[in-house]
Design goal:
The structure holds three protein chains of three kinds. Helix content of chain A is 38%, strand content 19%. Chain A has eight helices and twelve strands. In chain A, strand 1 and strand 2 form a beta hairpin. In chain A, helix 5 crosses helix 8. Chain A is elongated and about 90 Å long. Chain A starts with a helix and ends with a helix. Chain B is mostly helical. Helices cover 64% and strands 2% of the residues of chain B. A two-stranded antiparallel ribbon of chain B has the order 1-2. In chain B, helix 3 runs antiparallel to helix 4 and helix 3 packs across helix 13. Chain B is globular and about 75 Å long. By secondary structure, chain C is mainly alpha-helical. Chain C is 67% helix and 1% strand. Chain C has two domains: 179 residues, Up-down Bundle (Four Helix Bundle (Hemerythrin (Met), subunit A)); 115 residues, no CATH class. A two-stranded antiparallel sheet of chain C has the order 1-2. In chain C, helix 3 packs antiparallel against helix 4 and helix 6 crosses helix 9. Chain C starts with 27 loop residues before the first helix and ends with a helix. Chain C is built from eleven helices and two strands. In chain C, strand 1 and strand 2 form a beta hairpin. Chain C is elongated, with a radius of gyration of 29 Å. The chains are: A alpha+beta, B mainly alpha, C mainly alpha. At the A-B interface, helix 1, helix 2, helix 3, strand 7 and strand 9 of A face helix 3, helix 8, helix 9, helix 10 and helix 11 of B.
Chain lengths: 332, 557, 346
């Protein structure tokens, strides 16, 4: 428990954080949806609050006014009628009008949420236990979502294992990731900044750690970032590349670098160490072993760990694999 | 028909003088309880069992809330937390709230209220109880082996691939489904066939109407969760393929099947609570319920409409816009009969004479808390807003307000109301009021901050959370312990009142329904002579007067 | 109901109190009517219970009609028909038994119950025979689905579509020859290959999940895989030309059974239909659940037999037989739906 406490402190520095909002209820409104949804929410809130307070006020008034003093006094309730159809109809029809209005308003908002415009920038995301991997149009894969401001963006979502759900509160949108099919969501970001992304469908042990960032770049910033990242990755020395991939590819979620045990073994001191596997066999952790572990992780599972790691076959090229191996070598 | 010398038990007032022998003392020995056919004994056993399960579910809740006091890891590991939250949900839903009011209070009181000697099928009733015990044992076995960590909703594919003991838990829920079906079946036949002469449908107490509506849902909806759980078990054990995309299945199909039952299930949880609240408000306002027919019919309407709205749990699942639209529209419709009830109850209090004993405090708490829970349901049925709120703490707050604040509060009210009747003892009123206040305060303190967390984006079923939510979580945890304290105090004084309390009068509250015409506790045969009903269930307050020597009401002579 | 005394029953109603009327009922009529309502409610729950499965059947049939055509060749209509007749006969004797109970004809009642039980046992035996054939042939629910014979080798298919069967055998021989020479057989393709999973090779994700050895790691193996891909392309071209050569009489049945298919984004495939195992999942689940209900029915009838030895039925007391027969009729009715749905319609 102590080690996981320590590792969570290490994670905390990279945790997403909501920018301050000037609304009591809602996060900062960072997409075109927020105006409509926040407006509808406020309407719902005020109608609910006012009607609840009114109803409760009437109730408390009756309780105070018609309170009986003692049972011995045998006070009888006044003679009143016990039904009033007109009243029943009135207090059915008035709420019904509100319901219809709210329904229509919500319906229109929903259709907007679900109808991605044509010519939206399309980014793919894959949810898996327990990270999100975004694939950009140029093929770059990143664990953060980078988008340009003031542009329609459509995210095409899939899952490789269980249900997940991509939830970006600042954009007021959410959609489940369902294995075996594509789902999508879209948004049009209106503010630059760094907003949290959560997984909103329970998916197991580290469901609550499946966090990442939605980074909205100012105009021109997104293209600049794409160029920079490409150049950086192309020119990066292997250790730096490995360090970056450790975070981006989500290795961090399950493998620590400080010796603490998370879902998977720590990378600290890994290189060159002897490894014993679940079937009793053993080997030394050299370059080939590490490469195999990344591309075929369930082939040799270290004793005491579950075969929970997904494969990166097809997702990491040789250069990236080398980078990770070199990075691990530096973690003595 | 009855001769002139036969007493009519339906006349207000006690028919039999308190016999030394009542349903509790009638037969001795543990076997006479395990194999009893007496609905009152079965109901009492259910009550004790449900309260024990409530304590277990509450224990898990406090574990969860303690863990969530700090944002990072605490007293539990990730997996232990997931197991605790699953068991909290599963135990509370399947072992406590669904059986709760119908099987415990309903079994004891309903035949008495109806004027019958027992339910239609006493042996089936006993089997329902034994099935509850069996289901509970399966849950416990899951707990002992490696408690399921799927969430109480068992969504696939996680539930078909996780290594924890899902099959015992799912099988336990399957068995509990049969317990529920048989209780529902029994109640429907009882209300149809065992009414005494003169007891027309519109002379039934509203508690009976509520139990009847609930029974209809139990019979129609529960088989579907049965087959769903069976499919889940077969998928897990044999790779059925129905929910696995690799084998050609569809995970969303599971959600449809699951919610087809589980939405009506929430009406199984709340409609009996409505029935209890009707009884409490009438009795403690000493006035006939306003809008009786509307309240009765609205229970039926809610029961039936409840079958058509399951997709409102699935707006983000990838289901089509059309499907979502239909589900949302019908969900809004359900708000109307629910609102009608609240208005009618408050209208009952107009020009009434209100006594604020503990049951009434719970009823008033119900009105406050259920109104909040109910209107927040409207937020969630609004499609665009639900996209933001789905799977956040807003949902958690909503359903706890209606389940804890609705069903459990009403259960507590009914428990205190009928306590003198089935225990024959008086609970201490001051302590009762303190308990009610603690529960009310705890309830609001625990769950209101969760609405705020939810709109701000805090997702549910989270072990770790971002530090920005910490303050609200801490408020919520403090509330949870307050709530626990309230229940603990209640349990203590109820226990001491059972063992050492003062003797209760047959009709301490001056109620007009039939169960109050028997002694407290009732004899094992309920009524010596078959009642003949010639009045409505809430007529006759003026014919009762309070006798302070017995601390109960007697007929005005 | 146990034989409790009726000292507290029957007051104020004037109904006949039959010896077997429990104390909480006013009389025999109320007792009977309650039981009747109760058993009908129970039957409603049974229908809803099976409804979920019928629903699943309908959805899959609508989405994958070729699977159902393909699969029905594996089912033995003869045994299915035997079971149908046997159950209908047992329903007849059950209904007759109710009449016997009403008229107090105890001997005939017992005979009819025994025949009903016997028919039910025959049903279970036939089921056992069918199931053991299926297990033997590798026709198991989805995950364990591994048929020993392909559909074009099954007796039923050969009998119905001889030309298509021959053509299929010819193509398979050709594929096997090419595989032996180093190509990649298309018959391995039981994995779904719809476009939806194009971004991430499903076989990898699922292989990792289920621990199978999937990915190649060695440069030599990678090179071999590359070569295999190239030869697969050549195989695809060959398969396409072979299929074009088929006459309609040869090709239609194979297309209807989903054996020959051309998915939107891939080459022509010659294999079992995608998601074929689903049929057997549904088959075993539905017939298995039904079989459990038959077994329970046998138990109920045995119970009725013992009651008929201890109690006297007559025109005021025949409820237990009536209600058991109602349950039995429902079990029969469900089979009458299952039989055509699984065995007959294609």
């Amino acid at each position: 428990m102590i080690s996981s406490l320590l590792s969570s402190i290490a994670l905390a520095t990279e945790l997403p954080k909501s920018p301050p909002s000037n609304d009591f209820w809602m996060p900062l409104d960072a997409s075109t949806f927020a105006g409509d949804i926040d407006g509808l929410y406020d309407f719902l809130f005020w109608v609910s609050a006012v009607s609840t307070i009114l109803i409760m006020a009437v109730m408390f008034y009756f309780i105070a006014k018609y309170r009986a003093h003692s049972r011995e006094a045998n006070e009888q309730a006044d003679e009143t009628s016990h039904h009033n159809t007109a009243l029943e109809i009135t207090w059915s029809v008035i709420p019904l009008f509100f319901c219809i209005a709210i329904f229509v308003w919500g319906f229109r908002g929903y259709v907007d949420l679900r109808t991605a415009p044509r010519d939206a920038l399309e980014i793919h995301v894959q949810g898996q236990k327990w990270k999100w991997l975004f694939t950009y149009p140029n093929g770059h894969v990143d664990s953060d979502l980078h988008v340009p401001v003031d542009r329609d963006v459509r995210i095409i979502i899939q899952s490789v294992d269980v249900l997940h759900s991509l939830f970006i509160p600042a954009f007021r949108t959410k959609m489940d990731a369902v294995p075996g099919r594509y789902t999508d969501l879209w948004f049009h970001a209106t503010k630059t900044g760094d907003f949290p992304i959560f997984c909103a469908e329970y998916c197991g042990t580290s469901h609550s750690d499946m966090l990442t960032h939605a980074i909205v770049h100012e105009t021109g910033g997104y293209e600049k970032w794409m160029d920079e990242i490409k150049a950086k990755l192309d020119n990066m020395d292997p250790v730096a590349l490995g360090t970056l991939l450790y975070e981006q590819q989500g290795c961090k979620t399950c493998h620590s670098t400080d010796g603490s045990t998370l879902v998977g073994p720590s990378w600290k001191g890994l290189f060159g160490k002897a490894r014993t596997f679940a079937d009793g066999s053993n080997t030394t952790a050299d370059e080939n072993y590490i490469k195999n572990s990344i591309l075929n992780p369930s082939g040799q599972v270290v004793q005491g760990f579950a075969p929970a790691m997904p494969t990166y076959q097809g997702k990491l090229n040789d250069k990236q694999l080398t980078g990770i191996i070199e990075y691990i070598k530096t973690l003595k | 028909m009855s001769s002139a010398t036969t007493i009519n038990p339906a006349d207000l007032g006690v028919v039999e003088s308190s016999p030394e022998e009542n349903y509790i003392t009638h037969d001795k020995g543990i076997l006479s309880w395990i194999f009893t056919l007496d609905h009152k004994r079965i109901g009492l056993m259910y009550l004790i069992s449900v309260l024990c399960a409530f304590a277990l579910g509450g224990f898990f809740a406090l574990l969860v809330r303690t863990e969530l006091f700090f944002p990072g890891p605490g007293i539990l590991t990730h997996d232990q937390y997931n197991q605790a939250m699953t068991l909290h949900g599963a135990v509370m839903v399947f072992l406590v709230i669904i059986p709760g009011i119908p099987a415990a209070l309903g079994n004891i009181i309903m035949p008495l209220q109806l004027g019958a000697k027992d339910v239609a099928f006493p042996r089936l009733n006993l089997m329902s109880y034994h099935l509850w015990i069996l289901g509970a044992l399966f849950f416990i076995s899951s707990l002992v082996i490696s408690a399921a960590d799927t969430g109480w909703t068992f969504y696939v594919p996680y539930s078909t691939t996780t290594p924890t003991a899902v099959i015992p838990a799912a099988f336990g829920a399957f068995i509990l489904g049969f317990s529920s079906i048989f209780t529902g079946l029994n109640f429907i036949v009882t209300v149809h066939k065992l009414r005494p002469p003169g007891m027309t449908w519109f002379r039934l107490p509203l508690f009976v109407w509520a139990l009847y509506s609930t029974a209809v849902i139990q019979v129609l909806a529960t088989p579907v969760i049965g087959i769903t759980l069976l499919m889940l078990i077969v998928e897990r054990a044999f790779g059925l393929g129905i929910f696995d995309p690799a084998l050609g299945g569809d995970p969303v199909l599971f959600q449809h099947f699951f919610w087809f039952y589980s939405h009506p299930a929430v009406y199984i949880m709340i409609v009996p609570a409505f029935g209890v609240v009707s009884e409490l408000i009438a009795t403690f306002s000493r006035k006939e319920i306003f809008g009786y027919k509307f309240i009765a019919m609205s229970s039926v309407a809610i029961a039936l409409l409840g079958f058509l709205v399951w997709g409102h749990h699935m707006f983000t699942s990838g289901q089509s816009v059309l499907a979502g639209t239909i589900f949302s529209a019908i969900t809004f419709l359900i708000a109307i009969p629910t609102a009608i009830k609240i208005f009618n109850w408050i209208a009952t209090m107009y020009k009434a004479r209100i006594h604020l004993d503990t049951p009434m405090l719970y009823a008033i708490a119900f009105l406050w808390v259920f109104t909040i829970g109910g209107v927040t349901g409207v937020f969630l049925s609004t499609m665009s807003v639900d996209i933001h709120l789905h799977d956040t703490y807003f949902v958690v707050a909503h359903f706890h307000y209606v389940m804890m604040g609705g069903a459990i509060t009403a259960f507590m009210g009914g428990l205190h109301y009928w306590w003198p009747k089935f225990s024959g003892k008086v609970y201490p009123e001051t302590q009762g009021r303190i308990g009610a206040v603690l529960v009310f305060v705890g309830l609001n303190l625990t769950f209101f901050p969760q609405f705020v967390m939810g709109t701000r984006g805090m997702p549910r079923r989270y072990y770790n959370y971002l530090p920005e939510f910490q303050g609200l979580h801490q408020l919520s945890t403090i509330g949870a312990f307050t709530l626990g304290l309230g229940f603990l105090l209640t349990a203590i004084y109820l226990y001491t009142s059972w063992t050492r309390g003062k003797k209760a009068a047959p009709n301490p509250w001056g109620a007009t329904t039939l169960e109050w015409t028997c002694a407290s506790p009732p004899p094992y045969y309920n009524f010596h002579d078959t009642p003949e009903i010639n009045r409505g269930p809430y007529e006759g307050y003026a014919q009762l007067r309070f006798d302070k020597d017995i601390q109960g009401y007697v007929p005005v002579k | 109901m146990s034989d409790t005394t009726t000292e507290h029953g029957g007051h104020g109603h004037g109904e006949a109190v039959y010896p077997y009327t429990p104390h909480h009922f006013f009389g025999a009529k109320q007792h009977f009517e309650s039981g009747k309502l109760g058993v009908w409610l129970f039957l409603v729950t049974e229908i809803l219970f099976f409804a979920g499965l019928f629903c699943a059947y309908t959805i899959y049939r609508a989405q994958h009609p070729e699977v159902f055509y393909w699969a029905h060749f594996y089912l033995d209509t003869f045994w299915g028909a035997v079971n149908t007749i046997v159950l209908i006969l047992s329903s007849f004797t059950a209904a007759w038994a109710v009449r016997n109970a009403q008229l107090g004809q105890t001997t005939l009642l017992r005979i009819n119950i025994v025949i009903t039980i016997a028919c039910a046992c025959v049903f279970m035996c036939v089921k056992y025979v069918e199931y053991s054939h299926k297990f033997h042939d590798g026709l198991l629910p989805a995950r364990h689905f591994a048929p020993v014979h392909e559909v074009w080798e099954s007796e039923h298919f050969v009998h119905k579509h001889p030309a298509a069967a021959k053509a299929a055998a010819r193509i398979v021989a050709g594929i096997e020859a090419r595989t032996a020479a180093g190509g990649k057989t298309a018959l391995d393709t039981v994995q779904p290959r719809d476009g939806a999973l194009a971004l991430v090779p499903v076989s990898e994700g699922h292989a990792a999940e289920h621990g199978a050895d999937a990915a190649a790691t060695d440069p030599e193996v990678l090179a071999a895989a590359k070569a295999a891909t190239e030869s697969k392309l050549a195989d695809d071209v060959w398969l396409e030309s072979e299929v074009k050569k088929l006459t309609p009489e040869e090709r239609r049945p194979l297309e209807m059974a989903g054996v020959i298919r051309k998915p939107a984004d891939g080459p022509i495939a010659f294999a079992r239909p995608a998601k074929a195992g689903i049929f057997f999942s549904i088959y075993f689940f539905m017939t298995g659940l039904h079989g459990i209900h038959v077994a329970v029915g046998i138990g109920l009838w045995i119970w009725m037999l013992t009651i008929s030895m201890r109690r006297k039925f007559g025109d005021t007391y025949f409820g237990p037989i009536d209600f058991t027969a109602l349950y039995w009729h429902l079990v029969d009715l469900i089979w009458i739906y299952l039989f055509p749905m699984l065995y007959l319609i294609h």
